Amino acid sequence: MNFLRTTSTRRLIAGAALTTAVVVGGVAVAAASGSGGTPPPPKALDVAVHDALTAPKPVSITAHIQFTNNLIASGVASTGSPLLSGASGRLWIGAGRARLELQSDAGDAQIGIANGHLSVYDASSNTMYTADLGSGSSTTATGTAHTAPTVADISKGLAKLATEATVSGAVPTTQAGQGAYSVSITPKHDAGLLGQASLVWDAATGVPLKVAVTAAGSSTPVLALEVTDITYGAVDSSALNVTAPAGAKVVDLGSMTGAKAGDTSHGPAVQGLPAVQAAVPFTVTAPDTLVGLPRTDVRLVRAGSDPAVLVTYGQGLGAIAVLERPVGSQSKGSNPLAGLPSVTIDGATGHELPTALGTIIAVDRGQLSYILLGSLPPNAAEAALREVLK
After folding, report:
1. Does the domain spanning 3-255 belong to CATH 2.50.20.10?
2. CATH 3.40.1000 domain span(s) along the chain
3. Average pLDDT for residues 160-168, to the nearest whole number?
4. DSSP string covering 162-194, please?
5. Across residues 175-189, what is the average pLDDT?
């Protein structure tokens, strides 16, 4: 929940970069040689997934890509960054490193991953962003192999997933001149505005060639990263360096890893309304229901060095989260979404970020700040926050 405190246009750019970087990192986990441009033979999904996971790993990859980003409507964020508007570009992976370069008329962008570290240069704002992704984010193509699940294990996992979503089979297709399989996943319930997620991978190597997400009721991707041409072979080390001109602003985003499960460095978790209320110096607002969703959790979290309260309603992707914290002397009168469309709800003023997959609203009332996040349209998010504030 830390990003909710500091979301801004810069954070939106960095968040888009991180989303893209996750996909870039995923490309590095598979195989070594290309295949022809004809669809592969039919396979059961569990077998196709197992074969992709057990394919030999590639030494390096060079690819042309197309990045689609329709998450945020034009005009909402005052930037022409290709990370927020989408663009074409190139991808290089090798020697445990990866670099993605996007080109647009507004300026290029570069995303690099190396040794668990993320670097993003956005030319439209002449800003270099850096972040720690943790040791588990390496793109190393060689090293200690993890045992792949068996076909039976995968089949059990797919059966469990099928209770929550409609899963297509492994559909033979082609992508980037390679024989490939595609699969789509459509949630059955509790998915908010999410419509469908799809993945296409190289049949011979297991390398992901396309990842796309659509909103409910639409067939046009909200987010997509698509490989249009791919080569498996040596990559010059200079192609893996993210560079920025002298004088570029540098923004350190800190750690993106979050707290690990079982982390008790701040003491045991404090959960439940009575216990949380006793632990904070302000009155917690946590109605039993919110726009028809039952309250499912109340817990003590940290907003920097200050105590804060996270209240959740509902389950799954359709859940709503509300973060409550003191405004604080240094942040009083400011808003983490400053620069985005303004909103007034029952006398509380702030800003709103509407996206195709959900809405974030941050408002201040008196000495408290409220941030609501949910996969729901703006009018529904505003109605939910209105219930919290009443």
Report:
1. yes
2. 273-389
3. 95
4. TTTEEE--BEEEEETTEEEEEEEEEESSS-TTE
5. 94
